[in-house]
Every structure is written in C-alpha cells, then in structure tokens.
Amino acid sequence: MSDTPETCRPEGGDLAPVIDLAKCEGKADCLRVCPYDVFEVRVATSAERRGIGLLAQLKSMAHGHRKAFVIHADQCHACALCVAACPETAIRLLKARPA
Ligand code: SF4
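That is the input. Now the predicted structure with iron/sulfur cluster docked in place:
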C-alpha cells in the first residue's frame, strides 16, 4: 500500500469500481495506481468473455484476453485514481451493493 491520496475517503465501502470488460485491455494501470489493492489483472475465462460481444472478444484476443478484475471492492476508498488512469475509460465508480 502506498501513501493515501488526500481525495480518498477515510472509510472504504461506499463506492466500488466496476470494469467494462468489453473495453478493458488489461494494461494494468488501475493495478499500479490503486493504493488499496482492489484489482487483479489476469486472463479472463471463456465464461467471463462470453458476455462482452463478438467484436470485443476479437479485440480481446489481441491482448491475450488479459483483463482487470475487482477482487477487494470493500477496500475501495473512492479516490478515482483508477478511473483517471484507465486508458480505455473502462472503469466507473458506482454505489457499492450491500453485502
Ligand atoms: S477509486 Fe480506484 S484507485 Fe481509488 S481506492 Fe477505489 S479502486 Fe483503488
């Protein structure tokens, strides 16, 4: 974990990132900038790729089907660093669902 950005909320859990898998190209900028280890980047399974549409699946092949996934949504502090860093504008912060 790196220093906490001033824009981060003290308590996590209000908002959480949602990744548009059709847009994500697995460049991992979100992984690098997130101070709270919310993301992982890995090869998407065929089941995960199925819902993104044919064109996006073909595009996905070009980068080995690597994509970002949210693994610790409850740790998000809503600083939006990931939103700003994503070159594909694939990340939005939405109200977190109650557990
Ligand atoms: S807004 Fe993005 S970068 Fe900031 S804590 Fe949440 S997931 Fe991490």
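Strands lie at 15-19, 39-43, 66-70, 91-95.
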